[in-house]
């Protein structure tokens, strides 16, 4: 195609986009990019947007610059000259935050949906196409795409464990993902007047997203692709600036009021409010203001505003619904007890010095709590304890899989941990059935577990993935956790597996570590065929499984079937490595056991341990099998003649030839 023809097509394409805009044609997505002094990273952001697999006449990019003092605007204009679906809006006055630029993008949007992206972040190239298709399929008002942290940036993870067409506002961890980098239906925002509040700085994102969550009919989560890459960076905007506590807790009151006025039932409102308060105390300016603010006078100002916010807006019934440490903090906050709160924070840092196990629960005996004379039940902090683990050794041998390691409880003293009793528990991922194994060794938190693969694969319904948990019990208190993420390097290939038979079906069992969290699981599947090659060897018949690290039962047999006859030959050696697997049978034993009725060309079937685990040729083969003496009649004499038999392959089958 000549350059002139290409140019004409390109100009026609640009005219179509401009015509669509003039006619008010609805695009699929508007990408909203607020910018401020973004010259060092805006190109990467825009490149990820213009390279989307969605045709660029189906979406637009609106960049709103907030009076940048560097070369940001120049870069934006160059992109807008090159790509006709990019619009640049230059604000005349700096707004002090990304909220108002985002509002301008909402008002200017021609898309059915709008996606907010920060100028220093970027998208996976299939993000728009995947999210829009999913939103259309499920009539979603909001779509959250899986986020990835870059350069150590922390991003929400719990909400992205699995794809959900409809996430429950109360039951799901949506409240822990209240940044605006999501796909919103524009009609939802305009119908309910959902904009970023211009009178609030540093928390406008939370107010915007929480209102959208509450007003949305359906919120969807996509966890099947890396949609959004959030980059660790140093900020220059007002998000990082000082906010007066009166303004800050005023914004929190707005959110609490929205929850109270929502369509949720009273129970739903209380549970959702409790989730928000948990998040607020764990991930906000309230979390550690007694540390980040040096002036005790300023600390008291914050404490007084927090006290006022809680007493005037948070019902007492919420205290019973929040996490244990949030509940204990609320005792101090409701009493405006700054000194007690600071001591509590110090006690919490040295938690193991002040905990005990009583009646199946972990009890906090913090000195800071003594003036409040709380009952034992009011001091339960089971949810603050985690199992920390380390797996020091893995071993696959024949039909067994063993692991050694140690576990500790983060909230308990060493002498209490020495009392723990351990169990290993395999849980079928789909059916949730459990198979419990006792350790072959357990002392002071150290363990060794031995699993027989034939114990996992017993019945037909055992096919599937089994997840491994360790359960620790101390004086009636039980804690169960997945393990494997903290470990020594796995000594086997990621495809290493055991090949066995339980009398009902042949199966493979492959230990592996889950993609997201790196925990130990075993994948049980039915096994039908194994691809094999042969290696010439004078004394042994050698089978090679290149690239497959396989393990077989100790007393394994080679099964040979031909002319309706069956021969069982013990396997002499098994050698497994990351490069492949070799098994050997004694050729002399083959010659002794193999006695077919005749030796003309014949088909043979080779299997290991079961006729359900058949060997098939990986490539064409011709290898010496064994020698046999046969009798031939010559006139009136019988003579013996030695015949060499060779294994050859014909596509997917083996046969013997005599030479």
From TrEMBL:
UniProt key word Transferase: yes
A Pfam short name: TarS_C1
Highest taxon, organism lineage: Bacteria
Gene3D superfamilies hit by this protein: Spore Coat Polysaccharide Biosynthesis Protein SpsA, Chain A (3.90.550.10)
EC number(s) stated in the UniProt entry for this protein: 2.4.-.-
Domain Glycosyltransferase 2-like: 32-158
Sequence ranges assigned to domain TarS C-terminal in this UniProt record: 390-523
Gene Ontology molecular function: hexosyltransferase activity
InterPro entries to which the protein is assigned, alphabetical: Glyco_trans_2-like (IPR001173), Nucleotide-diphossugar_trans (IPR029044), TarS/TarP_linker (IPR054028), TarS_C1 (IPR041038)
Primary enzyme class: transferase
Residue ranges constituting the TarS/TarP linker domain according to the UniProt record: 245-344
Alphabetic keyword roster: Glycosyltransferase, Transferase
UniProt similarity note: Belongs to the glycosyltransferase 2 family.
Protein name: Glycosyltransferase
Organism: Bacillus spizizenii (strain DSM 15029 / JCM 12233 / NBRC 101239 / NRRL B-23049 / TU-B-10) (Bacillus subtilis subsp. spizizenii)
């Amino acid at each position: 195609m000549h350059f002139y023809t290409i140019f004409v097509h390109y100009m026609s394409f640009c005219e179509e986009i401009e015509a669509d805009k003039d006619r008010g044609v609805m695009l699929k997505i508007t990408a909203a990019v607020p910018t401020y002094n973004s010259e060092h990273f805006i190109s990467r952001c825009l490149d990820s947007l213009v390279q989307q697999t969605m045709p660029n006449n189906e979406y637009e990019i609106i960049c709103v610059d907030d009076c940048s003092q560097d070369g940001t605007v120049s870069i934006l204009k160059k992109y807008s000259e090159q790509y006709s679906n990019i619009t640049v809006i230059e604000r005349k006055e700096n707004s002090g935050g990304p909220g108002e630029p985002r509002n301008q993008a909402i008002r200017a949007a021609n898309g059915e949906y709008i996606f907010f992206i920060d100028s220093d972040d970027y998208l996976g190239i299939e993000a728009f196409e995947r999210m829009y298709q999913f939103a259309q399929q499920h009539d979603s008002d909001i779509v959250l795409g899986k986020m990835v942290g870059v350069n150590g940036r922390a991003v929400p993870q719990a909400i992205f464990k699995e794809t959900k067409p409809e996430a429950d506002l109360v039951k799901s961890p949506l409240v822990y993902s209240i940044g605006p980098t999501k796909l919103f239906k524009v009609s939802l925002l305009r119908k309910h007047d959902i904009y970023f509040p211009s009178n609030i700085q540093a928390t406008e994102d939370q107010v915007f997203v929480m209102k959208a969550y509450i007003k949305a009919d359906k919120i969807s989560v996509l966890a099947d692709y890396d949609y959004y890459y959030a980059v660790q960076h140093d900020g220059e905007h007002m998000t990082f600036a000082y906010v007066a506590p009166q303004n800050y807790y005023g914004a929190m009151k707005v959110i609490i009021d929205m929850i109270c006025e929502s369509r949720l039932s009273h129970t739903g409102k209380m549970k959702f409010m409790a989730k928000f308060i948990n998040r607020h105390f764990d991930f906000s300016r309230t979390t550690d203001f007694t540390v980040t603010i040096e002036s005790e006078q300023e600390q008291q100002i914050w404490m007084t505003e927090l006290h006022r916010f809680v007493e005037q807006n948070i019902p007492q019934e919420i205290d019973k619904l929040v996490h244990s440490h949030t509940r204990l903090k609320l005792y101090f906050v409701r009493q405006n007890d700054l000194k007690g709160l600071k001591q509590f924070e110090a006690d919490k840092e040295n938690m193991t010095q002040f905990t005990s196990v009583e009646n199946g629960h972990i009890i906090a005996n913090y000195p800071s709590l003594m003036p409040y004379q709380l009952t034992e039940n009011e001091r339960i902090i089971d949810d603050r304890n985690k199992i920390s683990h380390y797996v020091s050794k893995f071993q696959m041998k024949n039909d067994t899989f063993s692991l050694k390691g140690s576990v500790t409880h983060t909230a308990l003293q060493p002498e209490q941990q020495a009392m723990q009793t351990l169990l290993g528990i395999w849980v079928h991922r789909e059916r949730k059935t459990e198979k419990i194994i006792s350790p072959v060794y357990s002392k002071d938190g150290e363990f060794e577990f031995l699993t027989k693969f034939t114990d996992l694969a017993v019945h037909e319904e055992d096919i599937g993935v089994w997840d491994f948990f360790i359960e620790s019990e101390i004086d009636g208190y039980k804690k169960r956790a997945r393990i494997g993420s903290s470990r020594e390097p796995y000594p086997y290939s990621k495809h290493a597996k055991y090949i066995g038979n339980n009398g009902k079906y042949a199966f493979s069992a492959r230990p592996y570590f889950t993609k997201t969290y790196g925990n130990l699981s075993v994948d049980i599947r039915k096994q039908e065929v194994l691809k094999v090659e042969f290696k010439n060897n004078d004394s042994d018949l050698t089978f090679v499984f290149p690239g497959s690290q396989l393990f077989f039962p100790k007393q394994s047999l080679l099964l040979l079937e031909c002319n309706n006859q069956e021969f069982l030959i013990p396997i002499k050696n098994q050698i497994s490595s990351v490069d492949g697997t070799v098994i050997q049978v004694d050729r002399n034993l083959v010659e002794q056991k193999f006695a077919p009725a005749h030796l003309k060309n014949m088909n043979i079937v080779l299997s290991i341990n079961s006729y359900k685990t058949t060997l098939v040729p990986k490539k064409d083969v011709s290898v010496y099998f064994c020698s046999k003496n046969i009798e031939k009649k010559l006139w009136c004499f019988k003579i013996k003649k030695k015949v060499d038999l060779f294994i050859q392959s014909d596509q997917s089958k083996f046969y013997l030839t005599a030479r």
